[in-house]
Amino acid sequence: MMASPIRHVKRSRKAYICDWCNRRIAAGQPYATWFTYEENVISRMHPECCEAMQRADRYDEELPPRGTYRRGCWCGESEQFCTCKAETINNSKGTDNG
Ligand SMILES: [Zn+2]
Ligand SMILES: [Zn+2]
Question: Could you say which ligand is closest to the alpha carbon of residue 83?
Answer without folding.
Answer: 2
